[in-house]
Amino acid sequence: MTAGVNNQIEIAEYNAIYAQIAAVLSTQYGQTNLNSSAVAAPPPASNATKITVAEWNALQNDMFRIADHLGIARPSITTASSSLVIKDSDRAAYLTAATALNNPSQYYGLPADTVTSATVSSLNYVNVGVGKTATHTVTMTFSSSAYATYFFNTGSIINLSANLNQYQTSGGAQSPATLDNDWFNLLSSSGTITYGRSSTSSSGYQAGVISPSTGFINATNTETTIFSKTIGDGLYTSGTADRFWITVQYNAPVLTFRMYYGNTYTSRGINTYPSAGYPQAQYYAITGQITSTVAAIYPSSSNVSASAFYPASGIGASFSSN
Question: Per-residue confidence at 11, pLDDT binned at 50, 70, 90?
Answer without folding.
Answer: confident
